[in-house]
Amino acid sequence: YFDLVWNALHTFIRIPAAALLAYQAGNTLSPAEHVLVTAAAAAVAAAAHTAKTSARVAVSASPEPVSNVVLSTSEDIAAAAITWLATVHPYLSATIVAVLLVFFAIMIRRIITGVRRFIARLRRGPSTEHTLPAQPPSARQLH
Question: Are 53 and 104 in contact (CB under 8 A)?
Fold first, then answer.
């Protein structure tokens, strides 16, 4: 559960850090563009951080340790790769980030829809679709 606490603390680090980096990088822009770029960077960081924290919560509930190690290693590799890519090919890395954000938005929407359906099913109670008939079919119905 150390990762969950770590991610909670990083909520107050990653999002402001992204906004500050964008603010510094956009100092040649007009004031309106400067505000938009700063807000967009904070929004992208918030979306990415939310997706990462959601995945961490889901995986941390698993009792086996392999998924936690795989997720942590994958996060580290992905962060290093996208950082390197951003310095060498900024447009390509921006495209990858945009695609991943859309993917995570779709996945979050599907998860929320699934949870809502599950809760609705629990509220309805046990299903009667799969119960056995009260009486066996007569010989007349079988022919």
Answer: no
- C-alpha closest to that of 111 among 39, 67, 55: 55
Rg (CA), the chain: 24
The answer to whether the CB of 33 falls within 8 A of the CB of 26 is: yes
Give CA–CA dist 112/110, Å, rounded: 5
DSSP string covering 42-77, please?
Answer: HHHHHHHHHHHHHHHHHHHTSSSSHHHHHHHHHHHH
* 8 A C-beta contact, residue 109 and residue 101: no
DSSP state of 5: H
- In tens, the pLDDT along 2-37 reads 777 887 888 899 899 999 999 998 889 999 999 999
